[in-house]
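This section describes the prediction task in plain terms. A model, or a person checking by hand, is given the sequence of a single protein chain and must write out its three-dimensional structure as a string of tokens. No templates, partner chains or ligands are provided. The sample shown here is typical of the held-out split.
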Amino acid sequence: MKTLLVIKYRALGDSVISLGTLQYLRTILPETKIIFATPWWTADLYKNAKIAADEVFGFKLQKPTDWFSMWHRLRRREIDGVFEMFQSGRTSTFFKFYSPLNGTPYWAHNHHSQSGIVHDQGVIKPIIQRDLDGAWSFFGKEKRLSIPDYKNYCPNFYMPNVQKKKRIVLGTVATRETKMYPLEMMARLAQIIRNEYPDYEIVAPISNSKIDANIESKLRSLHSGIEFAKMKLSELPRFFAESSIYIGNDTGLKHIAIASGIKSLTLFGPEPPLEWHPYDEAKHPRLFLDPLSCRYENGHYCGLSTCESMICLKNFTPEDVWSQGRSLLS
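The expected answer:
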């Protein structure tokens, strides 16, 4: 196979997690050109950081014009095969037409299906392992290779000439309120760190969104002492690589931090870490209150957007958090 398109059409963190499987595919398909297809708004993340793909391909499938554009962009690249790590509805529909009409094989791992040809299909496990299971089933099994272990494929940005700084990054944002460490507690955490390590910067990356603006305003009103950094996605990998540690919510920023090579401490609330923390816990410990019955009332995680008690995160005091975070600096 000359050219393989590898797709992860999901959120920012999912995109970063995929880097581990790209690394695996690179080792077993050394002569193949690998094109990594990711949502258009995430593609800039990889602009200044080398990954195990020859090209990053940002795309969207929201309007008919997007589908037309995607069709012709793929034709120009002479794609020999398509592998989708975590099949989505829109990509599935697109390739239902593109694949037979262009004679291009389409392999996809549907994580929601309980049956299929993928190894351990439907089994809940670390998300990197699920992606690797799909890659192995379609490309490694026929070579009689052993099933890859996710612990050997931590996502990685390759960045030369990194100048380290005394900087602690706090992850204050999240995709929903229930995944956010309460801001009053985050402010107290920042104050504790500043009192103990006054020579370190304490920085929180934020976007230009209204939600992030409200978070910044609240933390400033609490006299947290946190500095706020607004930057392009393309600047984030080096920003994290130059930092000392990450402490914060389970969100895309956490995955970028880990892929950039720094240690981290993640605060888990409604979602258990089994799937979304596929990392070496000696370097990347996490705080997670378990058992907690309310988390599993409607499935294997809590899907609430808001919660009055927030016991899953409020259980960890700023002092508890810093007692773990401090050890990462030593």
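For orientation: The chain has two domains: 3-151, 167-329.
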